[in-house]
Write a structure and sequence with these properties.
Elements: E1 14-18, H1 47-59, E2 64-68, H2 78-86, E3 93-98, H3 103-113, E4 117-121, H4 127-134, H5 139-151, E5 157-162, H6 172-182, E6 185-189, H7 208-216, E7 221-223, E8 233-237, E9 243-247, E10 260-263, E11 268-270, E12 279-280, H8 282-285, H9 292-308, H10 328-331
Parallel strand pairs: 1-2, 1-10, 2-3, 3-4, 4-5, 5-6, 6-9
Antiparallel strand pairs: 7-8, 8-9, 10-11, 11-12
The structure holds S-adenosylmethionine and iron/sulfur cluster.
S-adenosylmethionine (SAM) is lined by residues 23, 29-30, 68-69, 71, 97-99, 121, 160, 162, 189, 191-192, 194-195, 328-329, 333.
Length: 333
């Protein structure tokens, strides 16, 4: 049972943990190619600090942890981190979101260490477009990583795609065909105003309705009932059990059922991707005047504080909306 219940009655069971803000790609909708405002190394949580926070979270009813970033597979001790989380009593379900570049070598060790599932991001099937979109010529590595995830049995393998007008917005049906052929579960994500370069523009954003219309030119989509707290609206494809998801974060917000909290790689708790408030838990962990029990009690209190301050919605569509100071890569997507 979750003890993390906010003032709107939402119970929180899912913690997204950013392991680093560094990345091996430069997806244009996420960070500029010359981005350099990295979190200082000394501010990044150590693996022991991370484990303490996750243990406290689990004691408060968190039952799913998603490791993300930045690029989580850049963390040199990623396999150890997964193994240690999987070894916590009442271990949470453990998933990871990655750009896939290091997955070929890491998929099997991660599965062996206790990773339950994986999300891989891929926005195009065209190598040249991939290069243009990410500023790196690494398309083949992502494909190899996806094959390795399959061989390691990390099912269901979810693939996340962001469509950008004039760049890859003609690829929705082709991406779905490819995903069906390879038994990946595809989800399109609306571009959100969370990039470090501030390029997001509502006028050019490819909306959930547009994605649905584009897919419907080739596929018959029927809604799947029982969405729960999932950000994705799922649709059955051509009357089969295969599904595709559309995450309409901007035009079809799903805040009413949100069960997610976030921990940044420098130890700040957030109640929402779009929040402008953070609660510092790193400071508690590094307070030498406290013993371990006192640190855990205070971190528990700070989880409660984070949850209580959660707003009913992200407010992107309010005229007064102010985008968060920190980009997605620093918060953890
Ligand atoms: N580096 C990993 C990856 O790309 O999967 C994990 C972190 S990334 C921030 C997590 C997800 O956020 C990816 O699927 C990415 O496509 C998505 N993302 C990043 N910036 C976004 C934006 N501005 N709008 C929507 N999705 C975004
Ligand atoms: Fe890196 Fe993921 Fe952002 Fe792309 S979306 S730049 S892979 S953090």
């Amino acid at each position: 049972m979750s003890k993390l219940i906010d003032t709107y009655g939402r119970a929180h069971r899912n913690l997204r943990v950013s392991l680093t803000d560094r990345c091996s790609l430069r997806c244009t909708y996420c960070m500029p190619h010359d981005f350099a405002a990295w979190i200082p190394n000394d501010d990044l949580l150590t693996t022991n600090e991370l484990l303490t926070i996750i243990e406290v979270a689990v004691s408060q009813g968190i039952d799913e942890v998603r490791l993300t970033g930045g690029e989580p597979l850049l963390r040199p001790d990623i396999v150890e981190i997964v193994g240690r989380i999987a070894g916590i009593p009442n271990a949470p379900r453990l998933t990871l979101t990655t750009n896939g570049l290091r997955l070929e070598e890491l998929a099997q060790p991660l599965a062996n260490a206790g990773l339950n599932r994986i999300n891989v991001s891929l926005d195009t099937l065209d190598r040249e477009r991939f290069k243009k979109l990410t500023y790196r010529d690494r398309f083949d590595d992502v494909i190899a990583g996806l094959h390795a995830a399959k061989a390691a049995g990390l099912f269901p393998i979810k693939v996340n795609s962001v469509l950008l007008q004039g760049v890859n917005d003609d690829e929705a049906p082709a991406l779905l065909e490819w995903a069906l052929e390879n038994e990946y579960s595809l989800r399109f994500i609306e571009q959100m105003p969370l990039d470090a370069g501030g390029i997001w523009d509502r006028a050019t954003m490819v909306s959930a309705d547009q994605i649905f219309a584009e897919l419907s030119t080739r596929y018959a989509l029927t809604p799947v009932d029982g969405r729960g707290s999932s950000p994705a609206e799922e649709f059955f494809i051509n009357g089969t059990q295969a599904t595709v998801g559309i995450i309409g974060s901007v035009t079809r917000p799903f805040c009413g059922a949100c069960d997610r909290l976030r921990l940044t790689s420098d130890g700040q708790l957030r109640s929402c991707l779009f929040s402008n408030e953070e609660v510092d838990v790193r400071k508690v962990l590094r307070d030498d005047s406290r013993d371990d029990a006192s640190k855990r009690n205070e971190i528990t209190a700070r989880f409660q504080k984070t949850v209580i301050s959660k707003l009913p919605g992200h407010g992107i569509n309010d005229p007064s909306f102010i985008a968060p100071v920190r980009p997605m890569s620093a918060i953890g997507g």
